[in-house]
Structure formats: C-alpha cells, structure tokens
Amino acid sequence: MATSSNGQVFGKRKEQHIVILASGDRIRHMTIRPWMVTLTVCFLGTMAIGYLGATTYLVLRDNLIGATMARQARMQHEYEDRIAALRAQVDRVTSRQLLDQQVVEDKVEKLLEQQMALTSRHGRIGALLQGADTTGSLPSDGPVPADKPMIDSNDQAALPNSTQAFAALLSEPKMAPGSDASRKPVLALGYVPMTGENVADRADRLFSHMTLSLKEIEAEQLQRIEELASGASQTADEIAAILKRQGVPVDEQASLPVADAVGGPYLAPQSDRDFNASLNALDAALTRLETVRDTAKRLPFANPAPGRDITSRFGNRPDPFFGGLAMHAGIDFRAPTGTEIRSTGSGKVVTAGFSGGYGNMVEIDHGFGLSTRYGHMSRILVSEGDTVEPGQILGLSGSTGRSTGPHLHYEVRRNGAPVDPMRFLNAGMKLTPLIN
C-alpha cells in the first residue's frame, strides 16, 4: 500500500524499453533508456541540418560564381567597346595630325623660300654697298646699317629659323601658373592636342604673322634701296654740276654698264623683278657717283697751303718791281720759308725744276686740260714723271725767281690759259662734304 501510495504521490516512472535481439539460440536484450533516444534524435537532426546547409551553400555558390562571371563578361565587353572607340578616335586624330603636319610643312617650305630670297637679296645688297663703301661711293647722308636682322625681337616667333618656328608652332599654349594645364608635359613633335586650338589654326595665325613680317622686311629693303639710289643720284648731280661750272666735262655714259642684247615675250612684272630693277638702279647710281667722285678727287680743288692767308689774288695788280699794272695769273699764299706745299689734286708731274720768274716750280697735269703750277719753292721734293695724289708734299716754300719774299705762287690753267684758282678753291669747299 505504501508503494502504491508513493507512486501516486510522485507519479509513475517512465518505463524503460527493452529491445530483445534473438539470433538462433543466442538471445540478447538491450535496454533503451530515454536519454539515449534523445541523444540519437539530436544527432540525426544535426546531421540533417548540416546536410541541408551544405547543399544550400553549394547551390548558392554556383549562383554567385555564375553572376560574377556574367558581370566580368559584361565588363570585358564594355572595355573592348571602349578600346575600339579609343582606337577609332586615335585613328581620326592621327589622320588629322598628318594632314595638319603636311600643311605646316608646306607653309614652312614656302616661308623658307621667302627667307632664302630675302637673305639672298640682303647678301647682294651687302656686297654692293660694301664695295661702294670701300671705294667711298656711299652718300654721306645715308649711312648703311651694318647688319639689320630679318625680324625684330618682338617677332622672334616669326622665323629666323625654320626649326624654331616649327617647334613654336607645335608647342603647348602658355597657361596660367598653378593651373592643371600648366602641369602637362611638353608636347613632342607629331603630337596634336585633343582639345583646344589645333595645329592648322595655330599655323594659319603664326604663318600669317611671319608672312606679314617678311613682306615688311621686303618693303623696307626696297625703300632703303630707293633712298640710297636717290641719295647717290642727288650727290652725283651736285658734284657733276660743280664740275661743269668749272668747265670739267663728266662722261657719265662711260660709267654705265654696257647693256647686253636681251629680248623675250612681255610678261607682267613680279616683285623679285621689281627688286632687281631697284637694285640695278642703285648699282647704276652708285657707279655714277663713284665716277664723278673719282673725277672730282683728281682735279685741283684742294688748298696747296692749308691754313695760310692769301696775300694777292688773281687778276690785274700793281707790279711789285715796275709799279705799273700787270696781270697776276694766280694767287699768292703767305708761307714762310720751309712751309710744306701740297698737291691740290692727283696727276703727273710734268715740270720739276727752275723755270724763269717762277723760280723753282712744279707743274702737275691733272687731265681734262687742267694743270697747276707751284712757284718760288726753296726745295723741290718730286721729280718729272712722278704720279702724285691729293695732299702729297711737292716741296717747301721759298723766295726763288721773281719774288719779293717767301711765299707760294699758285696757278690753275685750263688748256694752257690761266683761270682764277679761287673758283676751284670755293668749289672744293662745296665738294668736300660730298666726296669725303
């Protein structure tokens, strides 16, 4: 009763399950307790959950891999399309750059031809003027610059050198300091910027500026040639007019170059031919100027006793020995004994010795029918047949011959007849700035 009572009070215990295993005569039994059942169920559940989780992971991983591969394929196609577009753009840029470069090279070649033409002209002008300057044929009022640059300092991009011009053309435009564009590398030859002003447009601007500069230089050359030719002609006219007033003929036609036989169909003049015509005119003017200057330098226009006073002029005067009027065929200079007497022009000594009333005399033939006589010398320093130049010392003053004291008697004769030497001295003062 107590046991029954306890069982009712505390409840019935769970019955244990006994598993009986029989195999032939062998009988085995296994008692299955509740905790064993619980443990088995938990293990099987864990295994089932692990299996389901592994299956789900594998399925999801395949999906993820497929999505990733599809995304990569799309990215690859996009990159390939982008690369193809960039290649097409590069081809277009390369084609445009080749065309622009060809245009630039053609314009550089044209400018080089113009520059070579101007350089050749400058060399011809320099050689002509150097030769004229060496012979003293340049006008005194028209100095020639030693070397005028082709282009001034403000137009240095304009082409003293085709390489510099081409490099300047292909260089990047200057940017403000600190900007992103200012940090770009210097462009190499053959690269054309993708944005902004292209090479062709910049070439048009640059070459227009250079062409204008070259045309200005050409105009300056022509203007300078015309000024020199005009100045040379004017100076030659002035010298020739003075010589003609003194009765000296100037054979200007003999100084002109002999014209060769020429011919051909008529064509419209070109600028280069205009330049050649101007240069020929300048050459003719300088040749004419050289001729008249050489003529003037040969003739007796200088002073035989520089700085000495004139004591007696040309014409009738009282004779110092007889008192009556007598013709004085020259002019007398006050010159103490030993004063140097100089030739008034170039020529040949025809007399050098004692000659009657002249005393010790030197006579020089200057050509063109003109001769000069230097009398009363104390000493003669030249001999007959000598060739003398203007300013050369002929002898020393004295008082030999028909003389009352030391002085220089100076005569100028035309075709043997005496003429007033003052005309030649005055003409010489006018000629000095024109021939020196």
TrEMBL record:
Domain of life of the organism in this record? Bacteria
Task: List membrane-spanning regions.
Answer: 35-60
User: Which one of the record's GO molecular function terms can you name?
Assistant: metal ion binding
Q: SUPFAM superfamilies, alphabetically? A: Duplicated hybrid motif
InterPro entries linked: Cell_wall_metabolism_enzyme, Dup_hybrid_motif, M23ase_b-sheet_dom
Instruction: Indicate yes or no for the key word Transmembrane helix.
Output: yes
Keywords associated with the record? Hydrolase, Membrane, Metal-binding, Metalloprotease, Protease, Transmembrane, Transmembrane helix, Zinc
Cofactor annotation: Zn(2+)
Every M23ase beta-sheet core domain range: 327-421
GO biological processes: proteolysis
Protein name as catalogued:
Murein DD-endopeptidase MepM/ murein hydrolase activator NlpD
Q: Species name for this entry? A: Rhizobium rosettiformans
